[in-house]
Amino acid sequence: MSKIIVLGASGMLGTAICEQLKNHNLQAHTSASLDILCSQKLHEAVATFKPDYIINCAAYTAVDSAESNKERAYAINATAVEKLAQIANQFGATLIHFSTDYVFDGNATTPYRVNYPTAPINVYGASKLAGEEAIRRTGSAHYIFRVSWLFAPHGKNFFRWVAETDMEELNIVDSQTGSPTSALDVAAFIKHLIKNDPAVYGTYHFTNTGSCTWFAFAKAINDKLSLNKKINPVASFKTAAARPTYSLMDCSETEKTFDYKIPSIEDGLEHVIKSYKS
Ligand SMILES: NC(=O)c1ccc[n+]([C@@H]2O[C@H](COP(=O)([O-])OP(=O)(O)OC[C@H]3O[C@@H](n4cnc5c(N)ncnc54)[C@H](OP(=O)(O)O)[C@@H]3O)[C@@H](O)[C@H]2O)c1
Fold first, then answer.
1. In this structure, which topology does domain 3-156+181-210+248-264 adopt according to CATH?
2. pTM to 2 decimal places
3. Buried-exposed string 237-269: b where 16+ CB fall within 10 A, e elsewhere
């Protein structure tokens, strides 16, 4: 059975991945037990446990705050990630890391393929891209999965906000198109990958298939949970960080390489609702 270290284990994706991998030999670290900014502790943890895989779910994810906290965003999303990849390489562990649709500029009109030129339009996206590039530079055995618009029955996310807000009328942006992606589905895929690792390392896209706007997604949540809220489309809100208008990513290479059928957005929502209600 594989030995696995998970970093950022209490985050939205980290929680889902730890749940999926709970029957593995797992060492799960929160930021309190292992701060990825502390390379000495990272080194010690990997040297002692000698994992087959290091799954990095730790990240600076506050997209708007990143605009004014650029140094910290880069420290966590790029510098620490580079060190982590070097350590993984030194001890022969495969690094599984997550990136974002925000590495693209949002001006495309067809789904972004993995090798499409990146051009982030906010600090968060730029810091995540720097993390990707740092991993690739180290030459370590790695998988980078660009995911988008994550939601889950736990953690802070759009699904839970719509489901739990007291507001009866919600104004939701209708000008951004993307693929809301269930963190549970990402976690199920990671379990599949670890069980059937083809060792075809590189950068891949993983999102639930299909597309919608935040407004359409809010309406779907509202309908499925019978919330009876009034959902209004709005063009945009003023936010500190710009958001890409279009961020669909082509996942066909992922499905082919890993022989895996990625669930649709509708199925992803069903999975999250089922778990949310249980
Ligand atoms: N959420 C999305 O919509 C989305 C979209 C695209 C890509 N992604 C990517 O997917 C991955 C998972 O995101 P998520 O939504 O699960 O994020 P999240 O819920 O914000 O979790 C991030 C985790 O990182 C931990 N962390 C932050 N700084 C750390 C540090 N210095 N040392 C160790 N841990 C640290 C946090 O711990 P504390 O809370 O204790 O600080 C938190 O548990 C990230 O790489 C993110 O960039 C997310």
1. Rossmann fold (3.40.50)
2. 0.97
3. eeeebbbbbbbbbebebbbeebebebbebeebb
